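Marked as duplicate of an earlier ticket. Keeping the data here for the record.
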Amino acid sequence: MDRVICVEIKDKLLWSAEEASAMTGIGIKKVYQMMDDRQCDYVIEYGRKRFIHADRFRKFLGRINKI
């Protein structure tokens, strides 16, 4: 029998762009634009997929005044 593990978005270490948008209220297009910035430290690349490191992203959002 397969076990299903459910993890709430707020408890995840890495977010997809859609999850980051849902958690922060930032539009999905803007999240993708922010992920394209190669100078940011909150994007994690895993193969061809890209994720947002939740804690780093929260800290980044706390430091900025304007998106």
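See parent ticket for discussion. The beta strands are 14-15, 43-46, 49-53.
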